[in-house]
Every structure is written in C-alpha cells, then in structure tokens.
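Before the break, one more example. Copy the sequence into your notebook; we will annotate it together after we see the structure.
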Amino acid sequence: METFAGPVFASLRGALGITENEYQQSLCSENCYLQFISNSKSKADFFLTNDKRFFLKTQNKREVKFLLANLKIYMEHLRKYPHSLLVKFLGVHRIKIPHRQKKYFIVMQSVFYPDDRISARYDIKGCEVSRWTEPAPDGSQIIVVLKDLNFEGQYITLDRQRPWLLQQVEIDTHFLQRLNVLDYSLLLAHQPLHHDERHQSLSFATLIMRTKKSVPFSSEFQDFRAQNRRLLPNLKNPLHVIDGPEQRYFIGIIDIFTVYSFRKRLEHLWKRLRHPGRSFSTVSPQTYCLRLCRWVQDHTK
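Here is what the structure looks like once it is written out:
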C-alpha cells in the first residue's frame, strides 16, 4: 500500500483532534468495515469504519490526481475558513495487488457522525431530474439517503444560525467554482434535540465565533482544533453539526472531483434537449454554484 502526501494529511488529522492512534485503531480495527450501498452513478465502492467515524471511497486515478494537484489550495481554504462545510479528506492511498489493477481510495471524515439518533439523510444537488429516491418501508432497518424531491415541503430551521450557514455555503461553493467543478452534493441529515439540549446551542456556538471569516493560522494549524469546537465538545468529529431550535443538523459538501470538461459540456447540451425546461445536475460550475446557494436560501429559515 502506498500513501500520498502523508505529512500533509497527518497535519490535518492532528488539527481536527484526531490522534494517529485513534485513526489507526478505526482503520485497522478487528471488526469488519460496514459496506455502504450507494445509489450513485459512479462505480465507486463505499465503506464505513466499524465505529462510523471515517468513510472510505474508491476513486479513479484522475480524481486522485485532481485532489493532489489542488491539495495546497484546499488546505489554504480550510485554514482561512475553519468552519468550512467541505468534506475533510484524511488520507489518499493506493493498493497494489499482484496481477490486478491498482486500486486508489480516499479516507474522509463522516458527515453523519455521531449517527445514533439521525432520523433522515439527504443528498442535495439543487435540481430535479433523477432527484427522487423511494424511501425505505416503515420499520425497515435499511438506511436510505434521500434526494432533493424527497425534501420538498421541508425546511432547515436554524433561526439565528441561518446567516452563518448561508454565508459558508456561498464561500465554499464559490471556491469549488474556481476549481471548475460541478455535480458535488450537499449532504444533510437531522435529528430531534432532547429537551435539555434545546436552550444550550447558542451558548456552545459562542465558544467558536463561527461567523469570523478569517482566522490567522500557523502552518501547523495550531488553532484549528479550538476554532472547530462546536456544539458537541465531548464527542469526536462534531465539525458538521449545527443546532436549530428543535433539530440538530449534520451538513457537509462532498464529491468535489467532477471537472467541467469538454465531455461534461456535451452532456449538458444533450440533457438540455432531453429535459427541456427542467433542472439537471450537469451545468456550468457558475450555474451549479448559484443554484445550490439558492436552494439553501429557499429551504432554510
């Protein structure tokens, strides 16, 4: 097995409060990984570590090269915006198996952690074509990630936290627009707050002054951990957690590897002919960015 940019990802793991021992224990646990059955069009394999803290996904060589080529500006973005919603990449690896094709995979922080009480999960792209998933039957143990059309008629109710979310989504999507990427997803989940949690969220939020746009960081991310102490200071990885008055929301932006190539431009033209008057995922990075920002504005209060 080969590791790419090991020291860079090790520094980020440390800044997120993940010790190397914890990381190795999660990845190398005696317990089996949990396979995640995705309805994604990609042929990637998805796995969760047994403790559900980390997500593993196979990637093709082009996607890995894209991430490594943009790793410096990705890290600079996280330094500048320590509460970025972008998924936190923790490692990039390649496995060589004799007489078989090399396999690349990345390790990410799970957006849906801790997931003990999560009641619904969504993958949002801000469009309508192919954005409905049949929910799991009542009483089913199968976890289904729903899509945009499943969320219609609902709102992310944040109250005083709403301006921060709108601003951070705009910052992160404009960053992705500069990378010329599209087709990324806003992952969203929610769970009801316990009665004793409903009046403490703002006091926790004041610990971190999330609305600050820029924080001075050293090259070793010395202050990163303190800046990310969010609403669940005694739990691991609560970086994607935002509390509203009644619900706790888990929010993160994933799948940031699709470049607006010539092939994607042709796909855009074909879909315009096939789906006249309807919104679909393959649009220019600028349109994609603005549309997702508009979706968040329209579905929050």
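The two ends are 47 Å apart (CA to CA). The longest helix spans residues 162-178. Try to locate both features in your own notes.
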